[in-house]
């Protein structure tokens, strides 16, 4: 049985170790969408650390073995989900494909690269869940191709209510290895953030639009 809480805290710690995640409650980052955020996550850095990327791949593989044993294809999202999709597919001995955010404008105009056949059962691998839009779009592309998107697995989630609702509305199961809550817990335990900043950090997750104003 997978210990979700233990894995969540271990991976959160590893992400902090390599600087893949940074917390700045008093100097918020600005996302592309314009949202002010006390956290910035760049899971692409995990590719450069073999022990961490293997922990992530094995954790994903364990979820697939335990909860989705019927899986026939692993599909990574372009671009950050592609390497992790490949690592997981290799561990499970399964075919791998990847999904673009939209179809190419030339050649065969594919949105899905690799082979996903009609009726196949597919797990989508993502690196990060913010609002959930791009991940849901990838899973829907699998369904539009005539396959069965069993769910999305991601390394980390900001745990925004908007994303939770979006996945529920789309009827797509989501599992993440780690999340914002686990990260804050680890950061507090290590003394990397002050206890007085907890309320500020938690308020962002509840209402991201008002943060930093």
Task: List the SSEs and their pairings.
Elements: H1 4-17, E1 21-23, E2 29-30, E3 36-37, E4 39-41, H2 50-67, E5 73-77, H3 81-92, E6 96-99, E7 112-113, E8 121-129, H4 133-144, E9 148-157, H5 161-170, E10 174-179, H6 180-190, H7 198-206
Parallel strand pairs: 5-6, 5-8, 8-9, 9-10
Antiparallel strand pairs: 1-4, 2-3, 6-7
Helix pairs in contact: 1-2, 1-6, 2-3, 6-7
Question: What would the keywords be for this entry?
Answer:
213 residues, alpha/beta, 6-stranded mixed β-sheet, two-stranded antiparallel ribbon, 7 helices, globular
Polypeptide structure, described:
There is one protein chain. The chain has 213 residues and is of the alpha/beta class. It is built from 7 helices and 10 strands. The chain has helices spanning 4-17, 50-67, 81-92, 133-144, 161-170, 180-190, 198-206, and strands spanning 21-23, 29-30, 36-37, 39-41, 73-77, 96-99, 112-113, 121-129, 148-157, 174-179. The strands form 3 sheets. Strands 7-6-5-8-9-10 form a 6-stranded mixed sheet. The protein has a two-stranded antiparallel ribbon with strand order 1-4. Strand 8 (121-129), helix 4 and strand 9 form a beta-alpha-beta unit. The longest helix is centred in the N-terminal third of the chain and has 18 residues, at 50-67.
Mean pLDDT: 93
Low-confidence stretches: none
Query: What's the total helix number?
Result: 7
Tally the beta strands: 10
Shape type = globular
Structural class: alpha/beta
* Oligomeric state as shown: single chain
Which sequence of SSEs, written as H and E, runs from N to C?
HEEEEHEHEEEHEHEHH
Spatial sequence of strands, sheet with the most strands: 7-6-5-8-9-10
Beta strand %: 15-25%
Distance from first to last alpha carbon: 44 Å
